[in-house]
């Protein structure tokens, strides 16, 4: 059976309504969110910017390393591909996409820079990571982010090319371990 976009959107909409009004525990809610995330990613994969349309920005953005990381400033990462993800331990959509991010990190940690930004404190992140076997380099913000990578919603993910320009912006959860994301990262690494 082949579904068109309208049918898939309707399924996602009604699934969201069921999700919203059903009293699930946090673990069940996260699993449902993860399932919806995978479907959403298949229908609407993260959109990349064409090289000519990418926007550069003032990359002076200091971050305090709190778990699996030392302090860093984004400006010092120019010349590298950077994966930035804003998240929180209490956020079900963030929790839903974390397994795919950990898999992507495991495969690309020696090729690109990963920055996971949270407002949670170190003990909370340590506990969350220990319970889920995550090893992601995590930071707290020390100053306001540049507007091109600033967000009021989480999860939000930005992939920065070697020239310090935004190659991808995605608001909401996604399957980050997909072949489309890996293809983008591989292309950015060769540019």
Detailed description of the structure:
By secondary structure, the chain is of the alpha/beta class. It has two domains: 5-43; 51-190, Glutaredoxin (3-Layer(aba) Sandwich), CATH 3.40.30.10. It is 39% helix and 17% strand. It is built from five helices and seven strands. It has helices at 5-21, 26-43, 92-108, 122-132, 179-190, and strands at 62-67, 72-73, 82-86, 113-117, 138-141, 156-160, 166-171. A seven-stranded mixed sheet has the order 2-1-5-4-3-6-7. α1 runs antiparallel to α2 and α2 packs across α3 (92-108). The protein is globular, with a radius of gyration of 17 Å. The N and C termini lie far apart (40 Å). The mean pLDDT is 84.
Give a topology summary.
Elements: H1 5-21, H2 26-43, E1 62-67, E2 72-73, E3 82-86, H3 92-108, E4 113-117, H4 122-132, E5 138-141, E6 156-160, E7 166-171, H5 179-190
Parallel strand pairs: 3-4, 4-5
Antiparallel strand pairs: 1-2, 1-5, 3-6, 6-7
